[in-house]
Amino acid sequence: MLTGLRLRDWAHMLGFRGHFSTKSRTYSTTLTRLRQARADFRLRMTFARLPYEPESTLVVGSWAYAGQGFTSGEAALAMQLTDDTAGGNSS
């Protein structure tokens, strides 16, 4: 009799009204406020480790090796490829 309503497909939602992350602005906090609180906390923890003054300029005095550019062979190949594409290759 109620087969056409497909209630079995929605039985898992009984007693639970809405999406799992839905928050009421009057009863609970919003996800935006939670995200902002986390971002503020992380910012405070980052600057707690550094001598930080908001009106000053932060100078980083340490460097780390991040990688190198092209090797001479790679540079020659890249130059050849760019020369080929710049020429138009109209065949």
Explain this structure to me?
It is a single chain. The chain is an all-alpha fold and 91 residues long. It is 37% helix and 0% strand. It contains 2 helices and no strands. It has helices at residues 31-48, 72-87. The radius of gyration is 29 Å and the shape is flat.
User: Uncertain segments of ≥5 residues (pLDDT<50)?
Assistant: none
Helix content bin: 25-40%
What global shape is seen? flat
The count of helical stretches stands at: 2
Beta percentage is under 5%
Q: Which structural class should the secondary elements be placed in? A: mainly alpha
How would you characterize the largest beta sheet? none
What gap, in angstroms, lies between the N and C termini? 72 Å
> Radius of gyration over alpha carbons?
29 Å
H-E string:
HH
Calculate the mean pLDDT score and round it.
77
Number of beta strands: 0
Summarize the SSE layout with pairings.
Blueprint (H helix, E strand, L loop, with lengths): L30 H18 L23 H16 L4
Write a brief structural summary.
Helix content is 37%, strand content 0%.
Looking at this protein, list some descriptive labels:
91 residues; mainly alpha; 37% helix
